[in-house]
Design goal:
Number of domains: 2
Helix content: over 70%
Number of helices: 5
Length: 107
Amino acid sequence: MEKRKATTRFQKRRTLRLTAEEDERIALQAVTAGTSVSEYMRRLFFGGRPIIAKTDDQTIRELRRLGGLLKHHFDVVKRTGNTGTLSELDATLRAIRRAIEALSERR
């Protein structure tokens, strides 16, 4: 399948007047979301795919990875019977779960 050129996809252009601060803010938000300013604004205006910061996705993946590692250690410590360490691991796993849920709600 042949890629379409941008000129055939977007045939109209609109002008939007912004202050320097507004322009900076939109540009920063677009970079944070990992999109161009145009794509970011189209998603805002037309309610397309949700705007999710790339860092949120990366953070969620890393938290899940850490949770998996902690869960493995939880099983190892559980076999040794050290209740103090078990409660610390349990609290840490709960904190990771809360962080993932908080990031997921922002989507």
